[in-house]
Each structure stands twice: as C-alpha cells, then as structure tokens.
Amino acid sequence: MEKKDIYEHLAKIYLDVSSQKKKKSNTKRNAYKKVVFASVFFIFALSFVLFISSPRKNAFNSEIALVLAPDPVKINFHFNPAKKETYTINLNNLDLDRFKALAFSLKKTNYKDSISLRIEFINAFKEKSEIYLKDIPASWRDFKINFSEFKSISDWSDMISLIVAVEEWNTREKKGVVYVDNIRLLKGGG
Asked: Per DSSP, which regions of the chain are E strands?
C-alpha cells in the first residue's frame, strides 16, 4: 500500500465516523425537539380542556355583572356612645332591574363575638328593605342574597344606596371589626 492509499483510507474512515456522529447528534436533537413539542402540546391541550369544562368560568361570565366595592371594607365598631356603625355605597340612582342578587364575602375578627349584620337597600321612592345575616363567621365566607328577599322594594330601577350596618343590639361584644369584601351585583339569582 502506498502512502497516498493509506491517507485516503484513513480519510474515508474519519469521514464515515464523523458523518455517523452527526447523524447520532441530529437524531438526539430531533428526539429532544419531539419530546419538548409533545410536552408543550399536552400542557396546552390540558389547559384548554380544563378551561372549557370549568364551572367557575361559566358562573363568572354569566353571573357577575357589576362590582360595587372590589376592595375589603373594614367596619370598625365601638359602641361607646355610638349605637351603630354603617358602611354606605351610594348607588347614584342606578337601575338594578337587570340584576337578581347581591353577593359578597364576610368575616369578623373576634371569633367569640356573635354578630348579626343588617343589609339594607333604599330606592328613590324612599322604599327601604333590610335583611339580617346572623352569626357572621370568623373566616371568609361567601354570601348571596336574592333581591326577592328584600320584600319592601317594589321598584329596582332607581336605587339610592346600599347600607351594611353593625348595630349595638346585634352584637355580644361592644367593639370589634367586620370585613366585607367583593361586594357585587349578580345577573343570576339562586
């Protein structure tokens, strides 16, 4: 064998090995790309299925119509000399005919206290209607009150105010705090 033949033979062996390494690295890279693509596709598909089948999504879109107070409201009562503490939302003659319920979250700070909360609507014709929520919990709890429970309001088309009140005769302790959060009007009752 001549020197030239030896070089050609070694070059052929080297080039064959190099092309096999490239094929292996390309194969590994392609397999990695396929795994990443399949993972991303699976995550998006699962997210889509969960979003479509989520009952909260449908409830959120169909029920929440108007948020009156998105931030927590702190009703800090101290009945010396006051007889009640109120939080009033001015509704500015808002037409509530298309709404069916009032919803909000509540909690008290003193778990030993027994507190009842008065919820009152007033319309432009000076019609007032109130209901009482008894035993406000010490941890956040959602409440939903249908407008039909406010019996003395005959016309919801011209509303003046919504009042949340803590009254001295509806608490065991003479001071404390009640939080009201996410006050909203809902299109759907129930």
From this structure: 64-69, 73-78, 84-94, 101-108, 115-123, 128-133, 141-146, 159-171, 175-186
C-alpha 23/C-alpha 32 separation (Å) is: 14
The size of the chain, in residues, is 190
CATH code (residue 88): 2.60.120.260
70 plus 134 within the same structural domain: yes
Question: Are the C-beta atoms of 180 and 136 separated by less than 8 Å?
Answer: no
- Does 70 map to a domain? yes
Structural domain of 139? 66-186
**Residue 103 and residue 37 in one domain:** no
Residues 20-33 pLDDT 10s: 655 555 677 777 78
Q: How far apart are CA 153 and CA 123, in angstroms?
A: 7
Exposed/middle/buried for residue 17 (C-beta within 10 Å: 0-12, 13-18, 19+) = exposed
What is the pTM (predicted TM-score) of this model? 0.63
Instruction: Verify that 127 and 168 share a domain, yes or no.
Output: yes
Structural contact between residues 138 and 104, judged by C-beta atoms closer than 8 angstroms = no
Same domain, 47 and 75: no
Which residue in the block uniquely carries the two structure tokens 């302790």?
173
Contact 187, 130 (CB under 8 A): no
